[in-house]
Amino acid sequence: MRPKRIPFRLIGVTTAALLAAGCGEKHAPMAQHTPEVGVVTLDTAAVPVTAELTGRTSAFLDAQVRARVDGIVLRREFTEGSVVKAGQRLYKIDPAPFIAQLNNAKASYAKAQANLVSTNAQAERYKVLVASSAVSKQDYDNAVAALGQAQADVASAKAAIETAQINLGYTDVKSPVTGQVGISQVTPGAYVQAAQATLMATVQQLDPMYVDLTQSSLDGLKLRRQIQEGRLSTSGPHAAKVTLILEDGRVYPEQGKLQFSDVTVDPSTGSVAVRAVFLNADRVLLPGMFVRARIEEGVNPKAIVVPVQGVTHDQKGTALAMVVGKDNKVALRPLVTSGTYGQSWVVDSGLNAGERVIVEGIDKVRPGMEVKAVPAHLPAAPNPGADQTAAKPADKPAAASGASGAAGAAGA
């Protein structure tokens, strides 16, 4: 069969139609879609500034009961671990040698008193006789000197009595303070010595309780600089609140008070000592426990806070935020944060009040894109309490672990 020939005129018309259709598609405008994102407009807020420090508890009073005389312990008069009162007798040391010393001192005192009477009478007689030249002036002077020596002997004997009474009193070993007594270090029959200062027991007052903390000198320097620059305001160390976190992670129910911060830096550790005091009526705190304390050091009245949904982190851990500018274009900002406050990050640098940060729809935009910004609908955040205050940079890793997950869920 012979193939049919297509007329050349038909081929030309078809080609012209296809070219016209191609040119029409090239010049037709393309439909563009502007993504919509939820933003929050930043404002300043008053944020408490806290420091989390580590330390150990110590007794409010720690009295070591030691022997003050030599002797044999006759008996112990307390139960180990019980609460004893100040002045309560704990041990009885054999008093027999000290009773004998006291009696000897009293006899010496009586002898000195008798000698004083004799020498005083002789001095009075010689005083009359020397006036009439019945005795020599030398004899009178000797009588006066003997009277003075007799008076000194009386005073010495009296002091010996007082010393013997004090030593006899030391045979009653008493508690110097009210508190809880620990393990007895001696038993009845043991020989104790004053020269060796034999430790017999320890009495500790556990209510209230001290908490001794350590703070790096660098953190202390930053705090003082922020106060001087007016970035932080504080009402004084005696009004600072301290929250205690126990070894099991629970928060101690009693609020503590900051007592003082040492003025000397330990050259071996580069830290300063900070002491707080806590009530301990239930004896939850025991001396030597490892604890963490959160100290409210001041308030930053102009802090920039950003919801955690608007902050992401890159692979290096740098905090990032997407900002919508006045031209409705997206810009990426690196941030420097100092911790969390409630459900927000506290930003030290990278953002300013009045800027719009994207918290919804972050996964739909890229830097440089033009977007439509609408107010975000975030769930109501709980009111930050004493346990949700802004932490210092030292606490940032613990806070960042939770915030990074929230930011990643927002589309980092």
Poorly predicted runs of 5 or more residues? 16-21, 23-31, 385-412
CATH superfamily of the largest domain: Helix hairpin bin
| Number of beta-strand segments | 19
Going by helix content, strand content and strand pairing, the class is alpha+beta
SS element count, helices: 5
What does this 3D model show about the protein?
With 412 residues, the chain is an alpha+beta fold. It folds into three domains: 38-42 and 302-375, conserved putative lor/sdh protein from methanococcus maripaludis s2 fold (Beta Barrel), CATH 2.40.420.20; 50-59 and 206-299, Beta Barrel (Elongation Factor Tu (Ef-tu), domain 3); 68-197, Orthogonal Bundle (Helix Hairpins), CATH 1.10.287. Helix content is 28%, strand content 34%. It has helices at residues 8-27, 96-131, 137-169, 217-228, 396-409; strands at 36-41, 44-66, 71-76, 83-84, 89-93, 172-174, 179-181, 191-192, 199-216, 241-245, 256-261, 271-278, 290-307, 312-313, 319-324, 330-341, 344-349, 356-360, 372-375. The strands form two sheets. Strands 2-9-12-11-10-13 form a six-stranded antiparallel barrel. It has a four-stranded antiparallel β-sheet with strand order 6-5-3-8, with no helix packed on it. Helix 2 (96-131) packs antiparallel against helix 3 (137-169). The longest helix is centred in the first third of the chain and has 36 residues, at 96-131. It is elongated. The model is unreliable at 16-21, 23-31 and 385-412 (pLDDT under 50).
